[in-house]
Amino acid sequence: MSPLVGRLLLLVCLALPLYGVEKCTGNDAEKPNCTRRSEEGRSTYLNSMYGTCLQGPAGTPGREGNPGTNGIPGTPGIPGRDGLKGEKGECVNEIFEEPWRPNYKQCAWNSLNYGIDLGKVADCTFTKMRSDSALRVLFSGSLRLKCKNACCQRWYFTFNGAECTGPLPIESIIYLDQGSPELNSTINIHRTSSVEGLCEGVKAGLVDVAVWVGTCADYPRGDASTGWNSVSRIIIEELPK
C-alpha cells in the first residue's frame, strides 16, 4: 500500500464519525449508531444529572453596609420666572418733628416793696412755642401778712388774665389765726417764700404771666406785703408733655 492511500484511509476514518453525527436529525437521533445530542437532549441530560439536588436553607442576612460618601453637588437650577406685579402701595407722608429746644425766661426785680393787699403784684410776658406743651412757673420773693384778728392772704398766678385750669390753680397762702393787737405792732415778719406749679392747656403764642395777691375764701384780708428789701423773680419754662 502506498503512503498516499494510507493517508486517505486515515482521513476517512476520522471524518466518518463526524459525518454521522451531523446527519442525525429527527427520528435518526434514536438510532444506536447516532451519537449527536440535540439542544433538547442536552437539557434533559443536565436535568437528569443536577435536577435531583435539594435546595439548602437560606443563609444569615448580611449586616448593613457603611453609609456612602456624599455625592457631588448638583448644578444650580434654572432661575424661576418673574412673579406677578404687586398692587400699587399707598404713599404715607411722615411728619418729622423738630427736636425739643429749651424755652425759658426770667423776670427779676430788686426791692419790689409792693404793699397792695388786692391786685397784680408783677407780670412777665413769655412766648410759648407749642400748644401741646406745659408751662412751669415760679415766683420767689419775700411775703408778709399782719392783722388785728384772724386773716388770710393768697398769692396766685394768672395766664392771660385767667387762673390755671389744667389741672388746678397755682397758689400759696399765709394765714394768721390771731393777729397783732395793733397794725403798727412790732410783730412784722417778712419771709422769702415761693409760689410754684405746672399749668397745661395754655395755647401757643404770647402769654402774659402774672402774680396776684388776694383774699382767701370766707376769711377777711390783712395787711399784705410782697418783695420787701430783697430780690423777687418770676421764672417761666416751657416743657414737653
Helix content range = 10-25%
Low-confidence stretches: 19-24
Strand content: 25-35%
Shape: rod-shaped
N-to-C SSE string, H for helix and E for strand: HHEEEEEEEEE
Sheet with most strands? 5 strands, antiparallel
Count the DSSP helices: 2
Number of separate strands: 9
Radius of gyration (Å): 64 Å
pLDDT average, as an integer?
81
The helix-and-strand class reads alpha+beta
Structural features, described:
With 241 residues, the chain is an alpha+beta fold. The chain is built from two helices and nine strands; from the N terminus they run ααβββββββββ. Strands 1, 3, 6, 8 and 9 form a five-stranded antiparallel sheet that branches. It has a four-stranded antiparallel sheet with strand order 2-7-4-5, with no helix packed on it. The longest helix has 21 residues, at 3-23. The N and C termini lie far apart (147 Å).
In short:
The protein has 241 residues and is α+β, with helices and mostly antiparallel strands.
Looking at this protein, list some descriptive labels.
241 residues, alpha+beta, 5-stranded antiparallel β-sheet, 4-stranded antiparallel β-sheet, 14% helix, 33% strand
Question: How do the strands and helices of this protein lay out in sequence?
Answer:
Layout: H1 3-23, H2 39-50, E1 103-110, E2 119-128, E3 134-146, E4 151-159, E5 171-176, E6 191-200, E7 205-215, E8 223-226, E9 231-239
Antiparallel strand pairs: 1-9, 2-7, 3-6, 3-8, 3-9, 4-5, 4-7
